[in-house]
Known about the structure:
Blueprint: H1 3-18, H2 26-33, H3 46-60, E1 64-67, E2 73-76, H4 87-102, H5 120-132, E3 134-140, E4 149-161, E5 164-171, E6 177-181, E7 185-194, H6 203-206, E8 222-229, H7 231-238, E9 246-250, E10 254-261, H8 265-273, E11 278-282, H9 284-298
Antiparallel strand pairs: 1-2, 3-4, 3-7, 4-5, 5-6, 8-10, 8-11, 9-10
Helix pairs in contact: 1-3, 1-4
Amino acid sequence: MKQPERFREYIWLVNTISRSRNGLTLSELNERWVQTDMSGGLPMARNTFLRHKQAVEEMFGLYIECDAHNQYRYYIGNEHVLHENSVQNWLLRTLTVGNLLSESLSMQQRILLENVGTESQLLEQLIEAMRSGRAVELAYQAYQQSEEHRYTVEPYCMKLFHQRWYLLARLGGNKGFRVFALDRMRRLSITKRHFDVDPYFDAEDYFSESYGVMLGDKTPLCQIVLRAFGREQYAMQDLPLHHTQHIVDQTDDHTDFELTLRPTADFIAHLLSRGRWLKVVRPQTLADEVRRQHLEAAED
């Protein structure tokens, strides 16, 4: 069996079991399996199922458990993983959508997608450098800079934000960290210089006070209350702006959300993009800054 076909079967197995509230017996699973084009009309052998079960655990960190006290039904033992912002979960969602689209090529004129950063060669090099613990040398040209600059940095982590890939790297000479956008990298090479990642470094914790990838501009951490109106309040409940977001007040007219983060320029840009549907209740300094930028944009 070809590798892409195996991936399709792994994804089908996870999605089918996770969508069943009470779990599925192997017999019930096969009733669904034989209805797919992958089965060729044949049931999935128990040994094949067990191999797929093991592969799902290794690839996605998902445990398919068997409830011996409930007719030997299979279920996702750690279903909370499906709701985490992990690499495995992102991969699972991406492959699921990819499989769905590959089966719907006849509908390609009716399925519109967004462009996502496709710097695959740079991604491959950076991940290899991270895996081997080697510094990289890159030529970088930031926006509004006429010339490119060269850096030798230690790649610490990668982050995807608003359809763009970013590298968080440690600079030499105790200069701290800096974020680089992959689409602004002109050249990149892996050096022979090895480095050790700080054992106390936690990538998720490092960005925990940020909205996106902006760091180091000395914007202070603060509690922010946003008032959302209309459909915006429901959109924010479905897609929180930050992991600290929670509801502090709700009426028939609006919902107030509280967040604790650093209101950097990328966060302010998001507030501006929502127009009158999102109002800053506090702090007043942030409300004044959003108002100032709205007025500046409306000037002739």
